[in-house]
Design a protein that fits this description.
The protein has 23 helices and 6 strands. By secondary structure, the chain is of the alpha/beta class. The longest helix is centred in the C-terminal third of the chain and has 29 residues.
């Protein structure tokens, strides 16, 4: 409730009414939609900040229904409106967006945004003085740039986790209130979540060539360990970029909206800094790898960037790229430890990973169909792809088991194993495991990320343990 005597309440948009900075959202949106348009907009920055900013917003076509609102601020604005106080949305974002937001929310008497000059800090205060003179006003904001306005306001409402930022600006006798935003404070757990460190378990695939070639020397383990570290860094590099580019669509998703960048817990600008640090670290680590392995890591990293930008919009090709992300780990690891990559392993892995990729995508489509939801516009799939993707995935699993059969009957196995007959018992275990994953699909939403499910599934551990035991018996 506004303090007695307050005649007008002025509310900021970025990081106040809206959880995110709309300009950063527009930049990321444009980067995903058309990097070329973003490049052209950048050259306009030489004509002035406002020209550049307006161009980015115009090309990004950001809409109010794509934004996430701070519920505490909405409640505050609604309460002020009910008490008869005039409520104004005043923002440095372009005026067209401000007007759209006000119409969308329906609680503001007036909405004003930047046009020829950037309405921020002292310029925003000048606008307030020009329109309301010395009328007592309350200001709802979040940034140090609001300091001059906080100092002139009769009542200050700070939105954020660090109220001390605003307290130093509040003049004597002025009211002060702190509103907590929707999102939590930045934390170590949030940064680890942004890195998707749990997904690093996928990089254990780099040890597969070490096991299949029986190369158990210390240098081989060291090489595989280096490959594991580099793929973990590069994978996090891709995840950070993907989460930044998908921040708008993720914020509308029932599960993904809790991710650090989509929720607002971590600033997108901080994410770009993290992306740069990971990139420099990965570049330094590449110099330690053999040329073949370094090339594989670079191909993986570049493809993951292109995948985040546009390749994931191409149905079916998306499956081969996801499978390729797993396969390239094995290829790079083989080069790192200095062993020749078996064609048997390549063929088996290709079909197994295609099945897992199909399982991931078809489960996502199945969930959307069951919930009668909307398919993510960044994907190239429709609900009609569900059955064909399932058939392709199940067929790929069966072909991988056929490759395994042919391998067991090859001269390669007889040269590597003393008692290869034990390996045949792995076949029914492998088929049972894959059949179970596909049969669980209709009732287990966590299958949407197969590797995460496998890491939590005790049946997968039992199957894996039995297969390792049979492998040990055959050596």
């Amino acid at each position: 409730m506004s303090k007695q005597g307050i005649k007008v309440v002025i509310c900021d948009l970025d990081k106040t009414l809206c959880v995110h900075d709309t300009f950063i959202l527009a930049l990321l949106c444009l980067m995903r939609r058309s990097p070329w348009e973003l490049t052209k907009a950048f050259f306009l920055s030489f004509r002035g900040w406002s020209t550049f900013k307006n161009k980015v917003f115009a090309d990004a076509r950001l809409e109010p229904d794509q934004l996430v609102w701070n519920e505490s601020v909405l409640s505050r604005v609604k309460t002020c409106r009910e008490t008869g106080v005039s409520v104004v949305l005043l923002t440095a974002s372009p005026n067209p967006l401000a007007v759209k937001v006000a119409q969308h929310i329906g609680l503001f008497d007036l909405a004003v945004g930047s046009e020829r000059e950037n309405l921020k800090g002292s310029r925003k205060l000048n606008w307030i003085r020009a329109h309301y003179g010395d009328l007592p006003f309350e200001y709802i904001g979040d940034s140090r740039a609001d300091g001059p306005i906080w100092n002139a306001a009769s009542s200050v409402v700070y939105v954020g986790h660090s109220p001390e930022i605003a307290r130093g600006y509040v003049s004597e006798g002025a009211g002060f209130e702190h509103l907590a935003p929707n999102y939590g404070r930045p934390s170590l757990n949030a940064w680890l979540a942004a890195l998707r460190w749990k997904q690093w378990a996928k990089n254990l695939l780099v040890f597969v060539p070490l096991v299949t070639s029986h190369s158990f020397s210390a240098p081989a383990f060291a090489g595989a360990g280096l490959a594991f570290a580099l793929f973990s860094i590069c994978a996090s590099l891709g995840y950070v970029l993907n989460d930044l580019l998908d921040i708008i669509s993720d914020s509308q998703h029932p599960r993904k909206r809790k991710r650090p960048f989509a929720s607002g817990q971590l600033e997108p600008l901080s994410g770009l800094l993290l992306f740069a640090i990971l990139g420099v670290t990965a570049a330094a680590g590449l110099s330690l790898l053999p040329a073949t392995s370094a090339t594989a890591v670079v191909i993986y990293t570049v493809t993951s960037f292109l995948y985040s930008l546009f390749l994931k919009r191409i149905a079916t090709l998306d499956l081969f790229i996801l499978a390729g992300f797993y396969l390239v780990r094995i290829i790079a690891a083989a080069g790192t430890i200095g062993v020749e990559l078996s064609h048997w392993l390549l063929a088996f892995s290709t079909f197994a990973f295609l099945s897992l990729a199909s399982l991931k995508r078809s489960t996502e489509l199945l969930r959307i169909r069951q919930a009668k939801g909307k398919i993510n516009e960044s994907r190239g799939y429709t609900l009609e792809h569900l059955e064909t993707t399932r058939i392709f995935g199940i067929g790929s699993a069966l072909i991988s088991s056929l490759v395994f059969c042919l391998y067991l009957d090859s001269s390669t196995v007889r040269g590597l194993y003393l008692q290869p007959e034990w390996l045949w018992f792995n076949l029914p275990i492998y088929l049972f495991w894959f059949a179970r994953l596909w049969n669980l699909q209709p009732t287990m939403p966590t299958i949407e990320d197969p590797f995460s499910f496998i890491l939590k599934d005790w049946v997968s551990y039992v199957c894996g343990g039995l297969m390792i035991w049979l492998f040990a018996l055959s050596v």
